[in-house]
Automatic annotation (TrEMBL):
Residues 4-154 form the LysR substrate-binding domain. The keyword Lipid biosynthesis does not apply. Keywords: DNA-binding, Transcription, Transcription regulation. Belongs to the LysR transcriptional regulatory family. One of its GO terms (biological process) is regulation of DNA-templated transcription. It comes from Photobacterium aphoticum. InterPro entries: LysR_subst-bd. GO terms for molecular function: transcription cis-regulatory region binding. This is HTH-type transcriptional regulator IlvY.
Amino acid sequence: MACDEADIAISALPEHLPAKVAFEPISDIPLSVIAPTAPGAFTEELHNSHPDWSTIPFIVPAAGTARERANTWFKQMKIKPPIYAQVSGHEAIVSMVALGCGVGIAPDVVIDNSPVRDKIERLKVAPIKPFELGLCCLRHQLDNPLVKALWEVAEGIWV
């Protein structure tokens, strides 16, 4: 969230939240590793009991919490996959995977609502830590009556 551009935002909780930012969780967003359903150069490798991930291209987020989650998962799996593309937007990852460009990691809500969801499959692999979705604002904005009212509503819900 850029300073003074918004009173409040909905965002995934980053690994390191700046002290001047308040965050109120409202939901968890699961993430999945996805692959194209159509046969391709690397899809056969994915169905091996122990795939050689060093031969499987990945489409990854360019930055942010999603990239942090992908990097953490790569370390957890002890893999250094080739990166086919670094893109902005989860929808782009899902579309590029559906086109057969590689494997990706995307939020389930994006996958479930994608027009190309029938062209991808979720892989059964080690789980990825979900996003913690919530409201965030600069702490001093909590003094604003409108922001405070929304914050109090958010404190009482979990979606």
